[in-house]
């Protein structure tokens, strides 16, 4: 307890060091169920899968996903959901002993631009962001479940959507369902998950105009809309006979890639060069 009783504040270096150590330890813990279940032959493979989940990277060493026990698939996606808002942000929310140093951990964990304080105390801000994260998570599960997806699949796809990580219990990702309703729901929540959660909080608390006054959000939405229209136009002339079919697949892949989620519904490697170039650019944005 010496670290918490010290009067020295946690600085930038200490904040980043604690965050890095937190991920290393979390990934080690997350690898244990994979090892106990015999999912991977070595600790390195299990650790890789766990680290990929916690950091929402989305890379995997699994070749066949659907052949694994439901418990393992649930755990694999759940750790990605935990990593979405950051384990350390969760710790800051529940460990007031960190005091002012919690801001350094918060800054080192929340992705994207400089996070805004929604409350004077950073612990309260972390709690509010987690509340928004959970709210959207519950809404997505409800939307998927009540439109026909099984509860397990709805949960696990939410676990891959909200952290924009892309883990899925299906070998063919979301494309396995070939269901436009599921795809549209996931598109909406991928778009939400890719935006600044402080803006979502403000919008939910009576200030929806803040979304349309934020330059980052407007750029984010504008790039996605332009990319969808550009790709859909090319797909209509070279791949699909219907503009609606072209819009369906273009919309899903653009939002999935722009938000770094990684879900797929189409083999975009077969798309024309221009469409693939736009998707490549979105990966960098």
Automatic annotation (TrEMBL):
Entries under InterPro entries matching the protein: Cat_transpt (IPR003445)
Protein's membrane topology: Multi-pass membrane protein
Places the protein is found: Cell membrane
UniProt keyword annotation of Nucleotide-binding present: no
Pfam families tied to this protein: TrkH
Similarity annotation: Belongs to the TrkH potassium transport family.
Transmembrane regions listed in the UniProt entry: 21-44, 78-98, 128-152, 185-205, 217-239
One GO term (biological process): metal ion transport
Protein name: Potassium transporter
UniProt keywords, alphabetically: Cell membrane, Ion transport, Membrane, Transmembrane, Transmembrane helix, Transport
MF-aspect GO terms: monoatomic cation transmembrane transporter activity
Gene Ontology CC: one annotated term: plasma membrane
Leader sequence segment: none
